[in-house]
Amino acid sequence: MKSKLLFLLLILLSTSKAQESKLMNNPFFKTWDTPFQTPPFNEIKTEHFLPAIEEAIKIEEEEIQKIANNSEPPTFENTIEAMELSGELLDKVTSVFYGLQGANTNDELQAIARKVTPMLSKHRDDIYLNEKLFQRIKVLYDQRDKLNLTQEQKRLLEFYYIDFVRSGANLNKQEKDELRKINEELSVLSLKFNENLLKETNAVALVIDKKEDLAGLPENVIKFAAELANEKGYPGKWVFTLQKPSWIPFLQYSPKRELREKLFKAYINRGNNNNEFDNKKIISRIISLRVKKANLLGYKTHADFVLERNMAKNPENVYKFLHQLWEPAIKRAKMEVEEMQRIIDREGGNFKLQPWDWWYYAEKVKQEKYALDEEMLRPYFKMENVLKGAFEVASKLYGIKFIERNDIQVYHPDVKVFEVQEQNGKHIGIFYADYFPRDGKRSGAWSSSFRSQSNIKGKFITPLVYNVGNFSKPTSDKPALMSIDEVNTLFHELGHALHSLFSNTVYHGTKWVPRDFVELPSQIMENWALEPEVLKMYAKHYQTGEVIPQELIDKLENSKLFNQGFETVEYLAASFLDMDWHTITDTVERDVIQFEKECFDKIGKIPEIESRYQTTNFAHIVGGYSAGYYSYIWAAVLDADAFEAFKEKGNLFDPETANSFRNFILSKGGTEDPMVLYIKFRGREPKVNALLKRRGLN
Predict the structure, then answer these.
(1) For residue 455, which phi and psi values (nearest 5 degrees)?
(2) What are 192-212's pLDDT values in tens digits?
(3) Looking at 63, 195, 374, 493, which residue is catalytic?
(4) N or C: which end of the chain has fewer CB atoms below 10 A?
(5) Domains and CATH numbers, the chain
(6) Cα distance between residue 510 and residue 496, in whole Å
(7) pLDDT of residue 6
(8) Which of 23-27, 276-280, 485-489 bottoms out in mean pLDDT, i.e. has the lowest?
(9) DSSP 8-class letter at 79
(10) Is 557 an annotated catalytic residue?
(11) pTM surpassing 0.85?
(12) Where are the alpha helices (DSSP H) in 371-519?
């Protein structure tokens, strides 16, 4: 019997040592001996993620139990600060994992995501539904005015208390169990929605095998389509996908109306094809569960739950704001429809303008009214020059430097890395730029971090920030030449990056910034992109190096109000759709298509313009922008008003204004109420006038 027990003990020890050895060979359990402790992507393999996440969850569970079971009376340091310091390994692993999930995924990573997503949901609930832990936080919250806390510490304590309450800490056991089930199901459904959307977006939407069907398309568009065809297994043909750099130029320039219709409908019907990737039932279930969760937590709707933490505060304020913009926008859009219909009629087209005609005839209007063709501009917007220009704007505003680093490892050859420094050489952080589409990357553009800034106990952690886009790729004979929209998007995402890079807080950077304020730092950067003074800094012909001529700059300036009705209406339609879904008060699972129709009929959306997103491909509202898609135009009021501050000084790079913006907006994270921060910067609350003027809606 003794020998049998000894044998079992030896097996257990051997298994334990093997597991320990496996973890020690996992790069996530080592100190990263890389510049600025950046992720060692050359060492990180797919098989490292699952064991690292499982172990990191165990470690944080132990850390949380230690805080919750502390026999000492709760203090800010042994409870709130201790929580901020917990989960370091889990943050380290998941920031890399989800970074790759968005930008460079594959079947293996998706399989791991399906496994760890419910695990992480449960882990979060285990923390937020821990009664002992909540009681410690509540004691501190109830005494907050008597504690000797800094402004940031007091706000952090309030955030934690409110987050625990909003996560179900005050529910009874039965309600908590129900909430756990809802959270787990929501996490799995959201993952599935995005997987389906990625598959549908990567699908080949249009294959052309007759050269005459390429009529009207610019040479670079044809070249890109041919190279894409080779990649996708259609040699000798031309392929168009549902990535924007592929489908938008086709709609702009192809006179083949039936092909435009086919491509456009493929785009808007992503997730709505009644196939294995259909998202209708998934999103309907998500909405139902969100209502159930909101009701369980004491809120009338999911929107009430979300907006409580935003600047807007409640759905009524959002709807009022959207309607304020909708009327002038739809009026302008109808004028744009009339202009295009006149061209159709004049050319003998026996049809009414449809959504798949918009880009084609809008391009004709632009050429007629402003003698401007986007293909005239592209040669001046080589991607590397645009990025250099965005860097130069940031440098002139804030006195910083971007230094390319070839010694920092990347997760894909397309990724470029830059060290960001103050003018005196002080290190600020690392910036990764990943701009070209690929099958493993979700659509759109975004900014995030592999590591956030913090300064707890005097240990200053610098941020590792990345920007991801899906911009026009280089072809075999031309560099990446960008559209105006892509130029604006690059500047926009760099604005998000600067917000993270300039963060100078004690507790985790921009983590607590409200959703409808977080777009201010990004959107204000777009204001510089096409300013004549700035264009002359970076818009240079990719072949000759010639600076963009004044004639083209004048045409750009004259066309600033072009298509603003369309752009505002398609965006606002999606914002109304988001709000309508999230102000539902019952848990009935709706017919998605019928619901959309009712939403758009109610606001009087015109048939010539489709919503920017349809429910089945509206990734924003499945992600972090549910009841929050309005945030972009809410922040547009802020960014237009804030940019006016520079204009009023007569200097786009006024040092005093830039310093104020950096100090009061970019560096503060969520340490103060956003309106308080804005007033400190501007001296008053924002006004809507600048936005209405910019869009021609006044």
Answers:
(1) -150, 50
(2) 999 999 999 998 999 999 999
(3) 493
(4) N
(5) 32-170 (1.20.1050.40), 202-268 (no CATH), 280-372+565-622 (1.10.1370.10), 379-558+631-694 (1.10.1370.40)
(6) 10
(7) 62
(8) 23-27
(9) I
(10) no
(11) yes
(12) 374-377, 383-398, 484-501
